[in-house]
Amino acid sequence: MADVIDVAKLADRREKAQAYQGTDKNIQHVFANMTSSTLLPGQVALVGAGPGDPELLTMKALSFLLQADVVLFDYLVSEDIMALVPDDTICVCVGKRAGHHSVPQEKTNQLLVDFAKQGHRVVRIKGGDPFMFGRGGEELEVLFQAGVSFQVIPGITAAAGATAYAGIPLTHRDYAQSALFVTGHCKSGGAVQDWQTLARAHQTLVIYMGLMNAQTIRDQLMAHGRSGTTPIAIIERGTQASQRVNVSTLDQLPVIASSAQSPALIVVGEVVELADKLQWFTSQSQHSQHYRTA
């Protein structure tokens, strides 16, 4: 994948971005004034794809996807979003999956540097927001050391997007006055979670990549004061047509997690009680599922 590619044979993505403007005059006006949305040869754009629904992409993210000569993507970027990439764009999968062969981070870093040094317009697209448990900062550090120019286009993080589509507000005056986002899959040798803080009542805890550690999460939260009857939800494939939401209680978390599929979020807190009332997305999608486990 790191072999030199003849840049002259690649189409000019800027023209495709301009062609995408459509016929609506308001849309044309917006695109015409996106003067900062130019991806230069030899530059990398770190792009947040959001949680999966392609309509949640920012206009800037879409513009850069249409300009890119090369797109490096991972498994959290939905197929619907990747379908927006022009057919002749070079797409390289650098995804990681627990328990499966995956591209080492060092290889991904080197590909970004190599493609940029060859003069390509490079998009590194990540699910959600690249600075929210996405290792985007690590990749930019490598680009900085290599002298490669870069831009960052934020995306809607899964904690905000998936919970909204599941009818679970992150905060609510009657239920939660704060929200904490944590990862359930820490770096080996990294800091231990502050379980005392995570177990506080009347706050929303959103756990990324926590399915494999559901037993530990349940045990630690309950050991530090969270009641076993605390409402929880596991949101699978949030914001996508195949979204599935399972609402239960903290003491049942390991059982529910054992049958859940990634990508999934674990939500712990009183706000989950509102899911039955506010599950707007389920009523609009025949393929979406929302159910409660006693």
Automatic annotation (TrEMBL):
EC class (word): transferase
One BP annotation, GO: methylation
Keywords: Methyltransferase, Porphyrin biosynthesis, S-adenosyl-L-methionine, Transferase
Xref: CDD domains: SUMT
Enzyme Commission number, as recorded: 2.1.1.107
Keyword Ubl conjugation part of the UniProt annotation: no
Pfam families, alphabetized: TP_methylase (PF00590)
Pathway: Porphyrin-containing compound metabolism; siroheme biosynthesis; precorrin-2 from uroporphyrinogen III: step 1/1; Cofactor biosynthesis; adenosylcobalamin biosynthesis
GO molecular function terms noted in the UniProt entry: uroporphyrin-III C-methyltransferase activity
Domain Tetrapyrrole methylase residues, every copy: 44-253
Family: Belongs to the precorrin methyltransferase family.
Name of the protein this chain belongs to: uroporphyrinogen-III C-methyltransferase
Protein's organism: Vibrio zhugei
Name of the gene encoding the protein in the UniProt record: cobA
